[in-house]
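Protocol step 4 of 6: structure prediction from sequence.
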Amino acid sequence: MPKVNYTFDSQLKDNLEDETINNKIFNGNQNNIKLKNVTFQDCVFKDVDFSNIEFDGVDLVNVIFENCDLSNKQFDERLLNDVLFKDCKLIGSSFIDSFIKKIEFIGTNAKYINLSGSKITNIVIKNSDFSESSFIETKFKKIILSNVIFTKSEFINTPLKNVDFTKCEINETVFDMTSVRGMIVNQFQCTELVSLLGVIVDYM
């Protein structure tokens, strides 16, 4: 978890461009804001609804989001280093082709999230809903999963060797042969995976 020593409460300024914001905490509504090529470092966002905050290139370094709504926000081709999303909404958010290191999703609603093409080192996902999410050609290194819903998600050309899914829901989740090889599942999930791969099991 990021350790942030912020200085004081603050409000985002409109039309921030090519700036680095350090050591701030942002609370509550932040309306009609445009951010372009902005880096947030050592910052905290609490109870912030990002619906009226426009992103055009945002990097995150040592940042905490708590009880925030970042649905449909794009972090494509961006840097995220040491970031925590706790009790947040990330419905439909996109992290395509991003460089991600040390990221945690705790108690997060991340339905339809897209992490395709990203390079991810050290990711923790706990007590979260990642239904219908996309992991296409995603590269993982060190991943911890606990009580995660991956129903109807897709893992395509995404190696999952030694990734433990035993405490996750993978009903109707799509895996290709590259992804499924070496992943860890329980006996009930094994039956689901076998049927997805087109194998017919005779229980007679």
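Step 5 (inspection) to follow. The first strand starts at residue 8 and ends at 10.
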